Amino acid sequence: MGWLTDWKRKRVLKKHRMDEHLWNAVAREFDFLRRNQSQKLKDLVLLFLAEKEFAGAHGFAVTDVIRLAIAAQACLPIRELGLDWYRGWRGIVVYPGDFKVRRTATDEDGVVHEWDDELAGEAMPGGPVVLSWDAAAHDAQINVVVHEFAHKLDMLNGEANGVPPLHAGMDRRAWQKAFAEAYEGFCDAVDRGRDTWLDPYAAEHPSEFFAVLSEAFFEQPAETKRRYPEVYDQLRLFYRQEPK
Ligand SMILES: [Zn+2]
Known about the structure:
By secondary structure, the chain is α/β, with parallel strands linked by helices. The protein has helices at 3-15, 20-29, 31-34, 39-51, 64-75, 133-138, 144-154, 172-191, 206-219, 221-227, 229-239; strands at residues 53-56, 91-95, 99-106, 112-119, 121-123, 129-132. The strands form 2 sheets. Strands 1-2-6-5 form a 4-stranded mixed beta sheet. A two-stranded antiparallel ribbon has the order 3-4. Strand 1 (53-56), helix 5 and strand 2 form a beta-alpha-beta unit. Zinc ion binds next to helix 7 and helix 9. Residues 147, 151, 208, 211 line the site of zinc ion.
């Protein structure tokens, strides 16, 4: 990080303190935050709040609790990596509930298809993260915040493909092998219509598999380790955390 950023960040931390009352109110709502209440995380959250910009869609009022709840969850994955891992964009757009986006695609006959997708979150390459507050606050099946911010990490080295920039010393082949094997087995189970532990949405694309496993890694680390030991190991090396 540049000296100017460094200086600005030191100043933010000097001038701002975490509102502990607000923090506790948020931590009460999110189990995995309760387990992760370090000063390091709180400092990172203060920087995140200073550098990112929240906007409510359709006049939705983004309260301090909402800002903090999103910031704390977004910062957990980068607690040991630093805020520069969310570089290159600024905005977080919060919708009150799921939102529609218009999709278009051209098929091989040159016919353009248009349809609406209903989403709980979306991470735009080079642009904002868009979230449904209803899903972030109330959907126990997913962690849409960790999910979308995992996509942001994945996009740091180009199109989201399930492989974020790995650290020096990490073995790219080991990552690809662990994820490819787990992904194949998972897609196979989904194809056969079996009940899966992970959200079947993870079968959509390797980038979705990475995002969904990142949610599981932070929220249910023991079970993730038991079911996907090799993927767990790679995520542990990447996030530089041992949540279990
Ligand atoms: Zn996704």
